[in-house]
């Protein structure tokens, strides 16, 4: 019985690994605010990013630490390449970190490799300062 259970676990792990390797995740690129940018509360209103793959869900996070242990904003949305945050959201004299990741919502018709609807890795973490 132990042998059958171990074999079953091995097959499941092998199947999951094969699906992950054969299903690439979409690419995403942070654009603005650029890394280490400095803004005052009147100038920062929009966060921009580039999504080379069509029709994706995007998860966007802001934190006040680079490890994202204290996430202060987390949102998921579709069909956008920018996100508006009101100035009232930010505090003066504060450093913020932001990152994004994408999930293709394609049914697999246009690109069969994305049919698993997996989240991509997080983008590079960028920071900006509010003065």
General form = globular
> Secondary-structure element sequence?
HEEEEEEEE
Nearest-integer average pLDDT? 67
CATH architecture: Sandwich
Could you estimate the helical fraction of the residues in percent?
A: 10-25%
The first-level CATH class is given as: Mainly Beta
Number of strands: 8
Number of domains: 1
Q: Which percent range describes the beta-strand content?
A: 35-45%
Low-confidence stretches: 2-26
How is this structure best described in words?
With 131 residues, this protein is an alpha+beta fold. It has a single domain, classed as Immunoglobulins (Immunoglobulin-like). It has one helix at residues 2-21, and strands at 29-32, 37-39, 46-50, 56-63, 71-78, 82-84, 94-104, 126-130. The strands form two sheets. A five-stranded mixed sheet has the order 2-8-7-4-5, with no helix packed on it. A three-stranded antiparallel sheet has the order 1-3-6, with no helix packed on it. A hairpin with a 7-residue loop joins strand 4 (56-63) and strand 5. Residues 2-26 have low confidence and may be disordered.
Keywords summarizing the entry:
15% helix, 5-stranded mixed β-sheet, 131 residues, 8 strands, Immunoglobulin-like, globular, alpha+beta, 1 helix, disordered N terminus, 3-stranded antiparallel β-sheet
